[in-house]
Amino acid sequence: MKNSKKLLVSMLTGLVLAVSLPILVQASDLTDKCDNCHGKNGNSEDDKVPSIAGFSAVTLEDIIESYKSGDRPADKYKPKDGEETDMLEISKKLSDDNVKKVAEHYSAQKFIPHKQEFDAKLAKKGAKVHKKRCEKCHSDNGSNADDDAAILAGQWRGYLKRQMDLIVSGERNVPKKMRKKIKKLKDGDVEALIEFYASQQ
Prior knowledge:
Layout: H1 2-38, H2 57-69, H3 87-93, H4 96-107, H5 120-134, H6 139-142, H7 157-169, H8 176-183, H9 189-199
Helix pairs in contact: 1-4, 2-3, 2-4, 5-9, 7-9
Domain Cytochrome c: 1-110, 121-201
Keywords: Electron transport, Heme, Iron, Metal-binding, Periplasm, Signal, Transport
Protein name: Cytochrome c, class I
């Protein structure tokens, strides 16, 4: 009887592993593909591509859904030794379950701010603009993932500039409260904000 129970437990354990293993492999394959563009564990090595490590799972899911819906424009990108694609194409291929897996994976990684040159004088001005216009939703100088907003502090300047251009021009949809804040920015404020976030290293 004991041997029968052991055999049954063994068979059930084997069955669970057999079912689970493909799921684990698929999740790993998925994030490996994301790493091709976003860098190992989501820390980008290209200033056109954002680091997504350490973003909250909620933020990552929202970002992917905004690509799926077309609310967020997607630039074509060709990683080294890879094929050209964009986030619109990628997001449409992801199931809801895959989106959750990707979000959970990258939210568990550590965001590493990028070392990059910046204009200290302009960054100082940007700090004031951030405090007045952005700190409420992007706290701790734009570094707090718990806000369920993108991490801005330490992001690549090239990526920040591209996104700010899209937001200011209206090509990228953003929440109404953010749109109101953007409209209140004066000449030079956007450039100052970008330098401020780039300076957060």
